[in-house]
Structure formats: C-alpha cells, structure tokens
Amino acid sequence: MPLDYRRFNGPEDSIPYNYYTKEYLKSYHELHRELIDENGVRKDGRTLDEARSLCMFFARTDMISQAKGSAYIELKKTKVVCSVFDPREIMHQNEFSALGQLFCEVKFAPFSCPRQRRPHAPDAEEKALSVALRKALEPTVCRHLFPNYQLDIFVYILEHDGACLAAAINAAGLALADAAVPMYDIITACSLAVIGDQMFVDPTEAEENLAIMNPEKDGINNGLITMAVMPELRQISDFRQIGSMDVNCIMKATEVLQKECEKILPNIQQILVLNVVNSFEQQKQLEKEAKEREAALNAKMEEWKTLLNAG
Amino acid sequence: MAGLLLSPTEKIYILHGVQDDYRSDGRTNIDYRPMELETDVVSHASGSARLRLANTDILVGVKTEIDVPKPDNPGLGKIDFFVDCSANATPEFEGRGGEQLANNISNMLQRAYNSSQAFDLKQLCILEGKQCWKLYVDILILECGGNLCDAVSLAVKAALFNTRIPFVKAALMDGGSVDFQLSDDPYDCKLLEAGTAPLLVTLCKIGDKCVVDPSAEEESCSVISLIVGITGNPKYYSKDAIETPNFKCKCSTIGMNGPGSVAPETFKNAINQGIIAANSLDEALGRALLRERQECNNFKKNSYGFLK
C-alpha cells in the first residue's frame, strides 16, 4: 500500500486494539447465535427476509449544489453520498470511443468502518467496489449519446453498516436520474448474506463479516451476494458472489434479491416524482411573484406618469 | 481483439450456430479447445505449470515464504496472486495497459480462493498465531488469445497441485520468537492438497445461450460474459479415490464482465451450464495431473514444451 508521507502514519505493523477485546475473540458459533434470537428476529428488530428498504430507508437528492446531480441514501446506519458531474471530454485519448465512458470512484470515509481505520489512499477493496459500480451502471446509461465524453460519478461512504455496494449503486442510480442523464431504466441493488444455510436479506456489517468468515463445519453454505437489477426491463446488470454456495442456494437467492430490488423501485420513483412536482410548484411560485412584481412596477409607472403630467 | 472485423451476416451465422448447440468450429456450447499442460517447468519455484489453450499461453510459478499470520485468522496461512501481462502478449499491454486486466484477474482469483471449502488455508499453518507459509502465485501471460480467466485458473490449480512445501523438523521457542529447522532433503516435503481449488469458467452470452471458451469471433458477438468459479472435486486428484457419495460442487465466486446485462432466466441457465463445464474440465485436469505425477515419480518424465 502506498503511504501518504504528508501525514503521520504511525508504526507500519500496528493493529487495532479491538483485535484483543472479548468481543473480537468470540468463536464462529457464539457470533452466529448472537445474530438472531429464538423468535427469528435479528439484532435490529428485522426478520430474516426483511430489507431496510421500507422503514429504515431515507433518500434525497440535491445534496451537493456544485454537482449536476447528487443523492444521499441512508439504510439505517449505512450512509452514502453520491455526486454526478457534467460529461467532459476525455483527455489524452488515442482513439475515438463511440460510447461514452463512466468513471466511478467509491471512497470510504476514514472513520466509516467499525473494525479498522480506512487509509487515505484507495485500497484494494475500494478499487474493486469502483469497478463493480461501473459495471453495474454501464448497461443502464445511454452511453451512445455522449461519444468521446466521460461522466464522473463519485460515491463517498460516510458510514458502513453492511450492503455498502448496494447502497452505492442505489445512490448512483438516483444521482444519475437527478442529473438528467439519459438512462434506459432506474437501477436498484440489494445484497444478501448466507450464513449456515440461513439467508439474511440486506445484511448489517456484523452479518457480512460472519458470512465471509470460514465456518468450522464443512459443507454448509455461506457467502455474500450483491445483485443490481433494472426492474422495468427485468435485466440483471451486475451479480457478484463470494463464499461457497450450492446451485439451489444461488437460484433461491437470485429470486429473493430480484423481489427486493423491485421493492426499492417505488422509493426511488417517489423521490424523483416529488422532485418534478416540487420544481413545478417552484416554477409557478416564481411566475406568480414575477407577475406581482410587474404589476407593482406598472402601478409605480402610472404614478410617475401622473406626477410628471401634473408637474 | 484488434483488427477483427465481422459483417452482420457473419455474426448472425455464429448466433444461429450457438442457438443450435453447434459452433462454427464444430464444438458444442460446453466444449473447450484442446490444451497443453505441463507441470514442474521452473526449477526455482516450489511449484509451477505451463498451460496453452489455443493461442493463450500462461506460465505460473508458486514461491513459498514464511510469514506471520493475520491476528484475526491465527490458524490460517496466506495466499497471494499476482498477474503480469507482459507486453509480449499483445502490444496493448505495453506500459500500464495491461494493469486493469491483471488486477481484474487477480481479484477474481483472490475471491474464488477466499472460502475454506475452495482452498484450505489451514494446511499452510506452521505454528498457530506465530508462523505460517505464504504462497506467492505469480502468473505470467506469455501470449494472449482470449479466454484468459479460465486458462489462468487451470494453470494455477495445476501449479498448486505441483507445489511442495518443506517439512519443519523442529521448532524452538526462544522468548517470543520462533526458530525453525527445515529439512535439507529436497525430497522431504509435503504436497499441497489442491483438489478442491476452484476453476473459473467464463460463459459468453450470445443470443439467449451461453458458450464456454469463446473464440475471438464469438467474443465480438457478445456484450456480456459471466465468470463462475466452481470448486473442484478432490476425488479426481488422488489415486486411492475416497468416494464421497453426496459431494456437490459449490460456487465460490460469480462475477460479470462486459458492459451488457442479462435476463434472470438466461443467468440461471448459464450457471447450471457453467457447473457442468467446470465438472468435466476438473475431471480432465485431475487425470492429466495424476499421470504427470506418476511419470515424475518414475523418473520417466517426458518434456514437451519450450522450457526444457
């Protein structure tokens, strides 16, 4: 990892103190038992198949005034900001590209993760997330409309509590729509963790961590899936899985994720429709104010005219 | 592929062929092109393999080093993948040109080998929490003729199967630090268990169907390909095959490549197809590797490649 020499970096081989706390030394089984109580309810009060898209979801646009379009998405503790900038010509390019390019960058805030502090230079995970985001967005943007141009999409993860790639894709889709970039469809994404043959829809960070840990028993399914979907066109634009799962598990997970992705769609649509309604009302208000001002000016004019005539 | 121009009619010809499960070079949709595999080709590496699949030529060397395990996984060893796209392969790789492709492939491998059911890192542990083996898997792409991911994963599995790790004879605890005595005898070493190591299968979507191991012409007909990592079956990799009746191959990673998208039904069919392809590939690889090892043990090894 390249070091940033302008900062004080601390000793090279330091590790966070919480590796030695009681919480951290718990075995796989203890952690697994803690995730879910006897009624099948997770730590944050959700059931296994309940995503955070309904009551723990908040999203808005117009976060960043300088950007062409921007969005902020919150899934309880996962908080993501995304901004989209105007297309600009690609510099120093050798050949003409008929399709526009997307440039995506995902960045974690240094304090975003509960386990380790994030370095300032982009690490391997951030690079992988950036590539994943670009792959998910490429099919949905009408790239043939801006040949030889590049569209910049920046995602900043303020707080990470699981499903950060899904949140980043959702935020980027909303920001692209807010920036009025021509798209074939709104893009939505959702992730799912499989731990010991149980499916946790929209996992938190603790659940994700356990899903990629290696179970002591062999032969059970565990892993993590993130899927991005274009709901109206019924197309999968990105699918990434790690861990080990058998075929049936993946098929089932695909169906569950598809349904969840469709559930997010109304949330996004509502925000976009509200934006249009608001801007219409704003327009009306402005027109009304303009008319009032004109009327006032005309009245003043009349007044002056009479004064001049009298004088 | 540079300089490849196909007319729309030729593309339709390929597409119709794929629909009928009969491709332009006579293969079915799950057939690979013939390949050449040779192990133990680099004398300074602990394990090595060279694979040639049509025009793709790959050389893999495994180096072992002693390292300290990560504090959150004290009982596990480490494995790292490095892909080097040399400018010999295609002029596009010159300078930093091949970097993105190389990162892509090494990320894919890292994710595929992440699960313990794919590759057991416990066998690399020397002393829990203190010392472990670290495997550096260096992948050199000598010639690039498409379908890199599959070829690389095959070559890596062959090289890991061929890797020997010296036995540790004695360990002395001296205060906090550990002292080892490794065996001097180069034949006194253990072989890695790489039977479950995953193979990556790239499925190229053409029309509604997918094909494995696409030729350059077929690649230009497709906008998206699916990469599926399937764990191997250890029974193909040992002579005294212990029959595990309900052994099931698992997916250790799935990813997508390319700018397109795919319908859910096509996606599901593709995964099933990938598992069938990976299974037959795994069986063939196992057979070839076992034969190679047999020859090695009898000192009757014939070398075929350019390296010897």
Automatic annotation (TrEMBL), chain A:
It holds the Pfam family RNase_PH. The keyword Iron does not apply. One of its GO terms (molecular function) is RNA binding. GO terms for biological process: nuclear mRNA surveillance; poly(A)-dependent snoRNA 3'-end processing; rRNA catabolic process; rRNA processing; U4 snRNA 3'-end processing. It comes from the Eukaryota. It is found in: Cytoplasm; Nucleus. Keywords: Cytoplasm, Exosome, Nucleus, RNA-binding, rRNA processing. Belongs to the RNase PH family. This is Exoribonuclease phosphorolytic domain-containing protein. It comes from Euphydryas editha.
Automatic annotation (TrEMBL), chain B:
InterPro entries: ExoRNase_PH_dom1, ExoRNase_PH_dom2, ExoRNase_PH_dom2_sf, Exosome_comp_Rrp42_subfam, PNPase/RNase_PH_dom_sf, Ribosomal_Su5_D2-typ_SF. It comes from the Eukaryota. Signal peptide: none annotated. Keywords: Cytoplasm, Exosome. One of its GO terms (biological process) is nuclear polyadenylation-dependent rRNA catabolic process. Gene3D superfamilies: GHMP Kinase, N-terminal domain. It holds the Pfam family RNase_PH. The keyword Cytoplasm applies. GO terms for molecular function: mRNA 3'-UTR AU-rich region binding. It is found in: Cytoplasm; Nucleus, Nucleolus. GO terms for cellular component: cytoplasmic exosome (RNase complex); nuclear exosome (RNase complex); nucleolus. CDD domains: RNase_PH_RRP42. This is Ribosomal RNA-processing protein 42. The lineage of its organism: Eukaryota, Metazoa, Ecdysozoa, Arthropoda, Hexapoda.
